[in-house]
From TrEMBL:
Domain 3-keto-alpha-glucoside-1,2-lyase/3-keto-2-hydroxy-glucal hydratase: 22-214
Molecular function GO terms recorded: hydrolase activity
Signal peptide (residue range): 1-17
Biological source species: Luteolibacter ambystomatis
Key word Signal present: yes
Pfam assignment, any one: 3keto-disac_hyd
Keyword tags: Signal
Domain of life: Bacteria
UniProt protein name: DUF1080 domain-containing protein
Keyword Signal: yes
Length: 216
């Protein structure tokens, strides 16, 4: 009897935890996503057999909601010599466009960016922090699992079960990296405590299987 009573107490909390997870991609259509200008996505991106496929030019996809602190997990694969990424805390910067922090997704071996330093390779916080040298990256055409854990101004990037970036987004190390980056002249870049999620169209085929966000 005592066990049943405790179970009855715990079940609502378990359900609440499950409800907090948000499937940003429902496996059926592009509900919840728009183009950068807020218009519906009509070209380039397709949903095929439960996968989200950037098949041809269609522009970036942006979530229709903003998120602050979260754990974001997704499965992805990329074409040979491909380049893509997921951006977070995305905001519109007047005269500069739609920008945010980026989890880089790349064919490190065959895309030119792979030779431009580790801060441009898969798992990097693009332009800021390189991924761990011993990261486990599956080759083009094979699935990878990635995760971003964002809490306040601390971020972790994970790749295939291993943490590859552990960095801050406000301290001296970050400020030094910002001063050397392509974002150095953008006022208040990255200062917002929340923003939209962006799936990057960088001219290559990329596939997503799941995209799940858990607010923290």
């Amino acid at each position: 009897m005592r066990f049943r009573f405790m179970l009855a107490l715990l079940l609502p909390f378990s359900a609440m935890a499950e409800e907090k997870e948000i499937n940003l991609f429902n496996g059926k259509d592009l509900s919840g996503w728009t183009k950068a200008d807020g218009k519906p996505v009509t070209t380039g991106w397709k949903v095929e057999e439960g996968l989200l496929h950037r098949a041809s030019a269609g522009g970036d996809l942006l979530s229709d909601k903003e998120y602050g602190d979260f754990e974001l997990t997704w499965e992805w694969k990329i074409a040979e010599a491909g380049n893509s990424g997921i951006k977070y805390r995305v905001q519109t910067y007047p005269g500069k466009g739609v920008l945010g922090f980026e989890y880089q997704m790349l064919d490190d071996a065959k895309h030119p960016d792979g030779k431009n330093g580790a801060i441009h390779q898969t798992g990097a916080l693009y332009e800021f922090y390189p991924p761990a040298a011993d990261k486990k990256l599956n080759p083009p055409g094979q699935w990878n699992t990635s995760k971003i854990i964002l809490h306040g101004f601390h971020v972790e990037h994970w790749l295939n079960g291993s943490k590859v970036v552990d960095g801050d987004l406000s301290g001296d190390t970050y400020k030094a990296a910002l001063a050397k980056s392509k974002f150095k002249d953008i006022a208040n870049f990255g200062a917002a405590p929340k923003g939209r999620i962006l799936l990057q169209d960088h001219g290559a085929e990329v596939w997503f299987k799941t995209i799940v966000l858990k607010p923290l």
